[in-house]
Amino acid sequence: METIAGRLLVDAPDTNFELQYELPEYKVFVHTDKFRMEQVLDNLLVNAKKNVQPGGILRLSLKEEKGILNFSIYNQCFAIPEETLSKIWTKFYRDHNSKYNGSGLGLAIVAQILSMQNLDYGVKNVPDGVLFYFSIPTIK
């Protein structure tokens, strides 16, 4: 996660948002395809960066609880309409109110990779923003 977040800052040194992150104080290991997981993190971060409101907060969080590593990314922005929440994981879906152009594949790729690994994931509206999340079992 530190690698991907570092790329976010390098790629966008003059961005207008506050990047916050929360990591465990100890190393946590998971068994996963490193390349695919980097793709998941990258796609989620790019999506959050494009949607965070000017001067807003983009917060990455990684918490380990009872053998599960919980990842979340919060971006301070307008809520996603409830009827749209499930559609954002569909290939080529782009909200007609979106401020940016994209292929509509980023979140579909995230869903595909996480589903192939049988990992729980989702998105929900929270006060003042949107929270994307997924969980992965840790290795003891």
Please provide a written account of the structure.
The protein is α+β, with helices and mostly antiparallel strands and 140 residues long. Helices cover 28% and strands 31% of the residues. The chain has helices at 2-11, 34-51, 106-116; strands spanning 17-22, 29-30, 56-65, 68-76, 121-126, 129-139. Strands 1, 2, 3, 4, 5 and 6 form a six-stranded mixed sheet that branches. A hairpin with a 2-residue loop joins strand 3 and strand 4.
Quick synopsis:
28% of the residues lie in helices and 31% in strands.
Category by helix and strand content: alpha+beta
- First-last Cα distance: 19 Å
Flag low-confidence runs.
Answer: none
**Major sheet description:** 6 strands, mixed
Helix content: 25-40%
DSSP, total strands: 6
Shape: globular
As a whole number of angstroms, the C-alpha radius of gyration is 15 Å
State the assembly state of the protein chains.
Answer: single chain
Helical stretch tally: 3
Order of helices and strands: HEEHEEHEE
Q: What portion of residues belong to β-strands?
A: 25-35%
Mean pLDDT equals 85
Characteristic terms for this protein:
globular, 3 helices, six-stranded mixed sheet, 140 residues, alpha+beta, 6 strands
Spell out the blueprint of helices and strands:
Blueprint: H1 2-11, E1 17-22, E2 29-30, H2 34-51, E3 56-65, E4 68-76, H3 106-116, E5 121-126, E6 129-139
Parallel strand pairs: 1-3
Antiparallel strand pairs: 2-6, 3-4, 4-6, 5-6
Helix pairs in contact: 2-3
